[in-house]
User: Fold Acyl-CoA dehydrogenase family protein from Zestomonas insulae.
Amino acid sequence: MRISFTAEDEAFRAEVAAWLAANLTGEFAELRFRGGPGDEHSFPEQRKAWERKLAAGGWTCVGWAPEHGGRCLSISQQVIFHEEYARAGGPGRMGHIGEGLAGPTIAAFGTPEQQRRLLPGIVSGAEFWCQGYSEPGAGSDLANVKTRATLVNGTWRISGQKVWTSLAHESDWCFVIARTEPGSVGHQGLSFLLVPMRQAGITVRPIEQLTGTSEFNEVFFDEAETDAANLLGAPGDGWKIAMALLGFERGVSTLGQQMQFHNELDEIIAIAKANGAANDPLLRQRLAQAWGGLRILRYNSLRMLSGSQDGTLRREAMIYKLCWSSWHAELGKLAMDVLGAEAELLDGAPYQLGRLQAMFLFSRADTIYGGTNEIQRNIIAERALGMPREPRVRA
Assistant:
């Protein structure tokens, strides 16, 4: 692990910052600091156009291999790109699921034909992806998936329901974990399917959140179809591929996420200084703890990025989701306490939340989505520490 950067790296940092300063202007100026977690519903068409702008500048999929359309940047330069992107207020990436999850998984497990067919649309910002993992009865318990798929005359027919599917209504493709072996249970009999979203067999229904927005959805599959050529890996490889994908999720973009957290913390500190909240010794201590906690997240991320980037979940990676979600939930509460009485007032009618108010409400979900804290503790205990498995009771 290196916690400093070379002169070459710093020159690259200046290049990234200059490009962003020159291009987050004009039609894209209003996108700065918009479209992140809790705000993903904002400006979807403009953010798709921004993806194409990034692609034209060579700033999508920067860590991918050249044969897949990437620049094969070093880990340190990828870190720099994601940090500078967030520092400049780059909007939430419409292509995040494709670039960070679907693409690396297709590159690792897909056939050459699948790679040639599917990766260019991600690199160019022309095609967008969503994730079909969670179900009403299988949120963090992915092994309890009930969605089924049957191969009929060269076509997979899929029936079932997925839930909490971010930006499904804006997506062209969905990677779906489905049970393809009748009678199978648990990790067995699952397959990883790549499914086009624009078809009659798929219904997307928005879920309204506490914030009043609807960036994620329920997705219903009613004999939806995808070609046999859109099976990733072999039938029954779904669990193995799904776990590798979760490893890619804890990649270099985590440093960009932390820079977004840094922006939020800076805003909270500025408000505390302006309204006198920083004079309260307890609030001042919590601000210091938040600052220190964010540094710890950074160092652990650098540590977990110093190993293999093949999707393997190292022990350092297994603690990351639990750490950041708990830290961010506390930051949301700290923001409201620093705002004081103003936290109870809305910017406008009928339900116009300020940025920190929306962050607080959305952070209530941080410890649930992407694997609940309870599940994360089980993963740490069983896989990282080698402790006895929790008894599984299935209906």
About this structure: Residues 258 and 295 are 9 Å apart (CA to CA). The chain has three domains: 7-94, 129-236, 250-384. The chain has a mean pLDDT of 91. The chain has twelve helices and eight strands.
